[in-house]
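Progress narrative, work stream C.
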Amino acid sequence: MARKINQTSIIDIDRTKPFDPIPFPGEVAPGFLSGEFWSIGKQDKRSLRLTTLDISNIHLETCKTAFKNRLVGMKILAYYSDNGYTLLDAKILQFFWENKNLVPRSWKRKRGPFNTPYIFFPGTVFEEKRGGHVIACLHWYNGKLYRGIGLFEDTRFIHHSLIVLAVLQPDSFPVLPRILPG
């Protein structure tokens, strides 16, 4: 659900049911994050406590700063988390997947001549049974929203200018936050 308050879109995130990747519909093969291959590993506790969120506070952060500091893989997520960023989780990705009309226009804009960004929700990291880490993403292409996953240990992936992380910056806490206890 979303509502407007002073021209700001506030979304409600249903935390009564945890994110379950198995029935999550999409163009990727059904069960692409099923328990057979992946499990939910690390999650950002600050993001999991959000039950409302001002969409305008979501910042798309490139990995370039962390990459310049020679950070790769999970160290990039630790860098942003340690610097006060809230890494938005897969339940927020699910909200946008189920409410495509609420995806901000800026997420659909091309970055360069060919592509729109791949928007990763790093507050939920999926662990492969053999030890790899992936993060789920959304991508707008030819007027249609897609979702996918990215292997976060791949430095080519992280250095790409179209890879962005959906985060809340340290000084931009959501308007009218309702936070679950804990």
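Work stream C, second folded protein:
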Amino acid sequence: MKKLIVAATLAATLAVPAFAGAPTPIAPPSPTTPSAGPSGPNALSPGGGRARHAEMEARVRAKIGAFITGELASRLSLDAARSAKLSDAVQAFQARKQSQHKALREELEKLQQLVDANAPDAQLKQQLDVVVNVKANADEINAFLNDTSKFLSVSEQARLAIALPDIMLAGNRAFAAMGMS
């Protein structure tokens, strides 16, 4: 049953980029370019595959966004114009979510540094509270619903709120199964 779900999700994912107008894939570097050698930006030296990693991360994020948009548009039976507006709202949602995730990572790193330095409990508690507040202030869903309120009815927004967690989970699982996340 899981294989069937993953296969169906994968098939839908592969069909969605054409529907959602996903960017064309970036060609891998040719073997004759300097970047393809061990001294190029893709080398394993410090700082060496960061550009490629960022590029791949952006492509995966775009594919997940296209998947989410396609699934929501299908479940809500949206026309092309409202699907385009939904796509913009999904992109804004992803940007807010990424920003919040980055802030959380930074605060967790600070907490880890304090733990490693055997900081006093008062200092640890203060940083722990900051981490908890960053997690608690995840208002991406509220902002997403606010963005969609401009072109979706309340009924459609309710169906969106019900479907979004399942769609996001299915998208993440599909991309994890493909080795992309």
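The first helix runs from residue 2 to 20. No further action is required on this item.
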